[in-house]
What we know:
This protein is mainly beta. The chain is built from no helices and 9 strands. The termini are far apart.
Amino acid sequence: MRDCRGRPALEPLEGRVTPVGFYEGPAPVPIILHLVGPADGTAVVRRQFGPSDSTIAFGGSGRLRPLGSTSVAGSLHRTSGGVRGSLVLSSRTSTLTLSVQGPPVQGSGTDVLSFVITDGKGVAAGTTYSYVRKVGSGLVDLTLITAGRRGSFHLDFRTR
């Protein structure tokens, strides 16, 4: 039995291994995804500080290559200086997170925004991927039709 009344002492570290992070499984596959196709749904506009500063929440679905049938959810914050936001695309086999930005959206009408895929997991075009970081980008045409706070949207994803 050890005497606990003595002075504090350091234990020797010999023979110990420093723990390191590890990844178990196949290495992530660096692939480039080209999203192409339409998505439609509802939009809710929440005005914050006037007509040029608002947040738009989206929810809908579409058929995007290479994902197939896809649900779309996300939000965009628009100001007089431009638009920034994120979208999450979810299919039966994949989930992608996109960062979206562009010039100011002028109410109803079609605006061109750019997107970058910032994260993803799943299977697309027969390739399994577990992590995607900025390896897919393109343009998305946003058509926003609102009457007050509620309305609809149409997104058309395309390559640059």
